Structures are given as C-alpha cells and as structure tokens.
Amino acid sequence: MEVIMGKMRCLHALGEWEQLSELAQSKWNSSTNDIKRSVAPLAAAAAWGLGQWDRMDAYIKVMKSESPDKSFFSAILSLHRNNFEDASNHILNARDLLVTEITALVSESYNRAYGVVVRVQMLAELEEIIKYKCLPSGSEKRALMRKTWNARLLGSQRNVDIWQRMLKVRTLVIKPKQDMEMWIKFANLCRKSGRFNLAEKSLNSLLEEGSPENPSRAPPQVVYAQLKYMWAKGQRKEALRHLVDFTTRMSQDLGLNPNDLITQPIPSNGPGVPKHVEEYTRLLARCFLKQGEWQVVLNNNWRTETSEIILGAYLLATHFDSKWYKAWHNWALANFEVITLHTQNNRVEVSNGTTHASETQEKQVPTTGGHFN
C-alpha cells in the first residue's frame, strides 16, 4: 500500500485529479479504515478539483476528527453549499489546529514553516470568500478583493504547488477565465518548472467555448502563452511559424498594415483608446521580441544570414512598447553583435587588401544607426 500512497502523493503534486480520483476509487472499498483515513485527504483534493462534491463529502466523513485536513475540506464544502456559518466554524477550527504545528516549525526554520503559513493564508482567503459571496455581483468591493488576492499571490514564492493551491481556493468564486492574467502567469510558471501537463491544463481552462464547427477559440494572451508552451515542448519551428502568423493577424486586427508597421502610429497612443487595444499593442511588442529571440536560437549564423529580420523584429518590439527595457536591451545587444562581427570581418579583409574603406562604412552605418536613433 505504501507504493500506492506514494503514487497518490505524486498525482496530487502534479494536479492529475482524474487519475488520482480513479486510483482512490479503485482502492477505496477494499481498504481498511486506517488506510481510508490516509487516502481521504488526497482523494478529497481530487474530488474538489473535479467538482465531485458528494464524493468529497464521503471522504471527509472518514478523516480524523481533529485534523486540519478535515476542517479545511469541510469549510470548502460548506462554502460551496453557501453554508457560511458552518464554513466559518470549520475555518476557525482548522486555524486552531495549525497553531501548534506552525509554532514548532517556525522555531526550526522559515522554509520548513512556509507550507503551513500558506495553509493559514488559504484559511484567511476562505474567510474573505465568505464576505465576497455576500457582496452584490459587480460591486467595487469585489473588484478590490480580487486585486488584493492577486497582489498577495504575486508576493508569494514562485512555486507551482503553492500557486496551484491558492488559485484552487479562488475557483470557489472566480472561474479561470475571469482571472485570466493570473492563470496565464501560473501556466508560465508551470512551463518554466517543467510541469508541462499542468501548464497545458491551465491554458485549456482559458479557452472559449465555441460551436461544433469551431470547437474552441482562445484570447490573444492565451494564444501567446500556448505558443511559448509549444516552443518549450520542442516544437520550435512550428511555434515560430505560428507566432509569425499570429503577429500578422493581430496587427491586422489593430487596423495596421503588417508590411509597413514601423511607419504607422501606435493604436494605443490615441485619446480614449479601449483598454484591450492597449493590452494588445503591448502583446504585439512581446510577439516581435519572441520572434527575434527564437530566430536567434534557431540560426547560429543569424548575424550574417538573417540579421536584418531579427533587428527588424527587435525594433518593432521597441516601437509597440517604447518603455519596455527588455526590448531596447535586446535590440541594442543585437546591433552590437552585428557591428562587432562586421568590424572583425572587415579588419581581416583590409589586412588582405580586399576591401575598401567605403565598403566597410556601408556595412556598418545601417547597424550603427540602431544605437543612436
């Protein structure tokens, strides 16, 4: 049974709720009460993730009576059923049970206590969710609470497990599509941490439901995150090709001519511009930066073969977000590398007597202009 428990813990950490639920169900009826008590918290987490509230209730009933897990999951279930008084009591009980644990761990080290600190924070957010549910839909207080939650999450450790737990609590009142920015950040965190399955699931949860002819559509921010996911999975050439197509379509959606972007005014600079136009303009800058970065990775000889294309992509990134340091940095660095290579080549050619000074100047001037324009 230790092997099964180990597998369940792994599935729990990976957020594979379907597999965890199936495994728990397959072993549940044939297990002793002691084993059921060990399995119950993991199975309850899976049931919660899948929205299987009746199963979750069954798992809660076999948990140890005075355990933080039982109080926590009971609070979740009560909140789902809008039984706020019971939820508050369970939250208070869970907090009391965690006091002893957190006191002992803090005396050892902050890192060891951090996981329990996060659990205490989750209890605090459950209390806030009760208040959130009692507020009218669309109220300013609700918006302020969501902003506070996001700031709190951004201030926590960039750890997949911690972010997953915090976001999971918020799904009691906020669907992923309503909190797209944070879920995209979470998907990016999963991707950078090598948790590709969880990244894919997170991105899929943000897809817009479509018709049978057009099964699913994604907002531009999600498409961009999906392309980075595709690149990380090793589909590099395909990701770059899709990124170029996506950038072209988005330019057209903003009313721009993709063949002459640098001379056209930026849509977000006009008065009374809608917020989404400003966001898409900034996203366009990020797309051009990625085009340049990915082409550099795919071609070691880019300085001599595709330097104009890459410098152009970086220049457009600065054009669509003139205050973005990373775009200016990449553009300047690429210019420097191209100048350095041409200078070295010209010195060799001059020493061999094969290049005139005018030819050297012609090669350097267009690139040098990148530093001073």
Automatic annotation (TrEMBL):
Pfam families named among the record's database cross-references: FAT
Alphabetized GO MF terms: protein serine/threonine kinase activity
Domain FAT: 1-373
GO cellular component: cytoplasm; nucleus; TORC1 complex; TORC2 complex
PROSITE patterns per record: FAT (PS51189)
Taxonomy, superkingdom: Eukaryota
Gene Ontology BP term (one): TORC1 signaling
Compositional bias (Polar residues): 350-367
InterPro entries listed in its UniProt record: DDR_Repair_Kinase, PIK-rel_kinase_FAT, PIK_FAT
Region (Disordered): 350-373
Name of the protein in its database record: FAT domain-containing protein
